[in-house]
Amino acid sequence: MNKNQSLPWDHPRFRSWIAVARACQLMQQSLARELAYLDIKPPHLDILVNLFRFEGISQQELARKLLVGRSNMSMLLPQMEKRGLIERRGDKQDKRVLRLYLTEAGRRLTREAMTIQTALIDRMMSDAPIEECELMTTHMERVITLLLKDEREPLETVVDQ
Hints:
Blueprint: H1 12-35, H2 42-53, H3 59-66, H4 70-82, E1 86-90, E2 98-102, H5 104-125, H6 130-152
Antiparallel strand pairs: 1-2
């Protein structure tokens, strides 16, 4: 890097990106602490909330929504099933597909956990005007779209010249 080239952390967009990443990590840590008494972690909550919203979703669809591999699902789902929070049922049209459902205990736990998550978000965002929140949403959704597009495109090899 030559003297005239700025360092990444001097670039305002880089600093914004790092701030978003740090806020996300710290929020996950705070959420984990607040969910601990329910004996669930943020990945469990992600699953529960998605099953609450999309009852009967397949394991594959859930993994895609959560941006995780099937191996992650294979570890978490049996634990949650054993605790009586979820059920896996075969699809009526395609016997290879398992559909996921919350049990009544899973619904109660999900409601309680969502209350905790919502209260945490409210505490962290309470001083931000709703317009700023909506602007941040717009920017982050654009970034998500770009990152998902990049993910689908093949990586090109960069050749030093």
